[in-house]
Design goal:
Length: 205
């Protein structure tokens, strides 16, 4: 039976050299931040076949692992996949070799940011940054600060305004707030300091 994952994907082949000389240094560097046990991968593709967003990826999860193992950081760190990954952990759960694929994706995102490689979807980077900012600020994500800031920074507010859907979204948010689906005022948690310590330097308030 044909494997649907090999039929219609857009592969970033332009980044791949014609011949590959394996270089273990990238794997070692990545594993030092883990361990993720990437080298245990035997390419069964259970991760890819269970991934709910593989349709939007330019490299499939098993390919990311393979490229990390052979040492092609440029291809991996410039891929859309590391940003498209929804961190759902389905791959990690399905892997028979206990490869920490979802966690590895996070590590690759961090590496790309540290190396100044532009995120192909800036709104996803905005989402991560605002999420972390809220955690540092309140110890948890607070919808009343998180959502407005994300809408503003990502340009979604402008797009909703242009599409004349902003009014409906505000009404929906108001109804949800009234039904207690989220707090209208920011709430903090007891262990806020500990969360800040885990995440590093606290945000100024
Ligand atoms: S499920 Fe695990 S062993 Fe199989 S391809 Fe994915 S990472 Fe490799
Ligand atoms: S964690 Fe990411 S790569 Fe793994 S199954 Fe979920 S979306 Fe796919």
């Amino acid at each position: 039976m044909a494997d649907s994952h090999t039929l219609d994907k857009k592969h970033p082949a332009s980044m791949l050299p014609e011949t590959i000389t394996p270089d273990v240094r990238f794997l070692q560097q990545v594993e030092a931040a883990g361990p993720f046990q990437a080298s245990a991968c035997y390419q069964c593709r259970k991760c890819t076949n269970g991934c709910p967003v593989s349709f939007a990826m330019d490299l499939y999860p098993d390919e990311v692992i393979r490229l990390v193992i052979v040492g092609l950081p440029q291809t991996v760190l410039h891929s859309q996949t590391i940003w498209v990954c929804a961190a759902c952990e389905t791959c990690t759960t399905r892997c028979p070799n206990d490869v920490k694929i979802a966690e590895l994706m996070d590590c690759l995102k961090e590496t790309a940011v540290q190396k100044g490689i532009p995120c192909p979807h800036p709104q996803i980077l905005d989402l991560h940054n605002i999420f972390l900012k809220d955690l540092k600020r309140w110890g948890r994500v607070c919808e009343t600060t998180f959502i407005p800031e994300y809408l503003l920074r990502s340009g979604m507010l402008r797009r909703m305004w242009q599409a004349h859907t902003l009014g409906a979204e505000i009404k929906l948010g108001w109804r949800m707030g009234r039904k207690g689906r989220f707090a209208l005022l920011p709430k903090t948690i007891k262990g806020k300091k500990e969360v800040r310590n885990i995440l590093g330097r606290p945000e100024k308030r």
